[in-house]
Design goal:
Blueprint lengths: L2 H18 L4 H26 L14 H11 L4 H8 L3 H15 L4 H10 L11
Helix pairs in contact: 1-2, 3-5, 3-6, 4-5
Amino acid sequence: MRARSIVGVLAALTILANLLLGVGWALAVAAGIAVFGFGETAGWLLMKRSHPDIPSAKGSHPLSPREVEVAVLIAQGLTSKEVGSKLFIERGTVDTHVQHIYNKLNIDSRPQLAIWLMERGLLQRVSTTK
């Protein structure tokens, strides 16, 4: 089960539990929204903290901050599934981001994407030796 799905289930369970305990529907829904909001925020904060090496998208280029995150991970050789796992998004969402990135940059391959990122200082050379 994906992180976003889990957060949604927890929010729904919070609402249900509050209703079963006799809490008014407005407060039960507010509690569910709070749980969902906290879960989404915590996921975003954990992702940022666990990936401090992802550069920001500041600069003069057409990519959004999320597209830069996806592009960097793709250029580092991760599969769409692996990128989705790291960023807590669906594989299909990653593929959509990649297609938007390719369209914006007028490129059509991962090696071209890596070159574009390196030319702008958004991707550091990744050592293959440890």
